[in-house]
Structure formats: C-alpha cells, structure tokens
Amino acid sequence: MSVDAPTPESLEKNADEIDLLDVLLILAQHIKLLIAGPILVGILCLVAGFWLPKTFESISILDADKQGISVSPSVIANLATSANVLEAVAEELGLEKGASKASRIKTMTTLVHASQGRQDKLVTLRTLGRTPEQAQQLNAAIWKHLFAMTIPRGGELQRLQSMLKTEQARLAEGNELEQVTAQLLQKGQTTDNTARLYGELLASNSERMRTIAKLQTQMEGLTVDDLVQTSTLPELSVKPKPTMIAVIGAAATAMLLLLFVFARHALQSASRRPELADKVARLRALFRQRARSTPL
User: Fold this and answer.
1) Distances from the Cα of 19 to the Cα of 26, 126, 175, 256, 275, angstroms
2) Is the peptide bond before 234 cis (omega within 30 degrees of 0)?
3) pLDDT score for 19
4) For the chain, give me the number of helices (H) and strands (E)?
5) What is the reported pLDDT for 129?
6) How many beta carbons lie within 10 A of that of residue 95, not counting itself?
7) How far is CA 170 from the centre of its chain?
8) What is the pTM of this model?
C-alpha cells in the first residue's frame, strides 16, 4: 500500500486551513474582550456625547426673484459669507472680541453657510450657535447687513429718484387727462378719436404704474419681506450626535482590540516559529528606521 507524497498545492491548502482555524481560535479565546470592550467604550462615548457643548442651527430662505433687483442668487450667497459682512456682524454681536480680524473672520466662516438652489432663485442661509437664540440672531444679522448692500447709493440713487419723480409727474398728468376723457364719454360728447385716446391713456397709465413700482423696488433693495422663511429658532441641536459618536467609538475600539489580539498572538508565536521571528525582527527594524527618519 503506497501513500501519496504531499504536493506543494496540498501543503499550501492545509496551511491556509490551519491559519483560518488559528484565527477562529484566537477570536474564541478573546471573545469576551472583543465584545465587552467596544460595548463599554460605546456606552462611555454615548454618555460623553450628551455632555459635550451643543450646537444649534438656524435656517432662513430668501427669494431672490424680485422684480427690479438685478443681484443674482450666486452673488447673494457669496455676499452672505463675504469678509465685510462677517466682520460687521461679528462686531455688532460681540463675537470673538479678543481675536484678530483674520481669526475672527475664519471663525465666522465656520458658523455661516449659504447656498443657492439649482432649479430656482432661492438662497438658503444656515448659521450655527451655542444657543438657539445665538444662532437665530446671527442669521438675522447676516440678512440685515446684506440687505443694506443691495440699496442703491450715490449717483445711482439720484438717477433712480429723478426717474421716479418724472414718472410720477407724468402719471399725475395722465390720470387727469384720463378723468377728463372719461367724463366726455359719460356725457356722450365723444368721437372715435376720443374713445381711442381713452384706451391709450388707460394702457399708458398702467405701464407708468408698473415702471414706478419697479423704480421703488430698485430703490428699496432686498428686504425682510423677501424672505420665504425667516430665521428659525431651533429646538434641537445638530451637534454633537451621541449615537453617531458611540457607534464610531465602538467600531474604532473593536478594530484596535483586533489588532492588539493578533499582534500579541504573533509575538507569542514568534519564539516557537523561526520564520515568524524573522518577520518580527524585520518589522522592528523597519519601525526603528522610520522613527529615525521622521523629523521632530
């Protein structure tokens, strides 16, 4: 009876099976540590998450599609997070008083976020604060300073005022002529030309009223009335999220414990298996070389 000699393929297969059994054995020996450790750390992270400082978020939405206003939603979103607006708001609310201007603006950029809609002209402003009131005040202050920047100034304002005065005077004259023509029509003292004139006056006066409204809108700029949603007073915090912190903490602990268990087993096995001892020695040499080459 002959026994077949083991081939390299069969030896490799057996080695793989033994390695898999070793892994399962290591996990079984340390199962309590691998389960209890992540659970304990997860509970601690969950408790710590409730004690961390809370952050609240206030949200407001602006409809930038206002007749007479030529400022695009993208420009409004950029203005909301511009250095001038953030600096003015920080000074008004007394935020980051002891910090430098650059540091104050950098901190404010983390508290203010503006975005524009892709399919509409809505601009959404989100602001963060340690309290609901602080988040809401910051949101409202951003709009206050931004709206002031949309009001015409200097020569542009004078031009609009002159045009408005002219249009109002022409509208007053048109209204008087319209009334006179209407009285003639009522008395029957009319001709075809009078009736046609009355129709033209109605159309002209209506157009002037629309022009006057547009000029007034341009002079007014954007206002709080253009907000589809005013600055909200949040009830729930957006940060931290205790459940997410607990899950991440438990997962990280589980990975570290696995690495610890397998590394410990490898070091213990190195004394019994020369090929493993050689690998461990090479790893230690590489770590020493990396530590020496890393600048302090």
Assistant:
1) 10, 54, 98, 21, 15
2) no
3) 65
4) 10, 4
5) 93
6) 19
7) 49
8) 0.65
Question: Distance of alpha carbon 237 from its chain centroid, rounded?
Answer: 15
Q: Closest Cα to residue 280, out of 295, 293, 291, 269?
A: 269
Give me the residues of the chain with pLDDT under 50, please: 1-3, 8, 11-18
Residue 14 is predicted with a pLDDT of 46
**Between the CA of residue 281 and those of 154, 266, 276, what are the distances in Å?**
79, 12, 9
CATH fold, domain 56-151+225-229, is: TATA-Binding Protein (3.30.310)
Kindly list the distances between the CA atom of residue 245 and the CA atoms of 51, 99, 109, 124, 199, in Å, as whole numbers in the listed order: 12, 31, 25, 28, 72
DSSP 224: G
Q: Which two tokens stand for residue 205?
A: 């006066």
- Each domain of the chain, given as residue ranges in start order, spans 22-52+240-277, 56-151+225-229, 154-220
Q: At what angle do helices 242-270 and 31-51 cross, to 10 degrees?
A: 150
* Separation CA 130–CA 40 (nearest Å): 29
| Cβ proximity of 111 and 86 under 8 Å | no
Tokens of 4: 């077949």
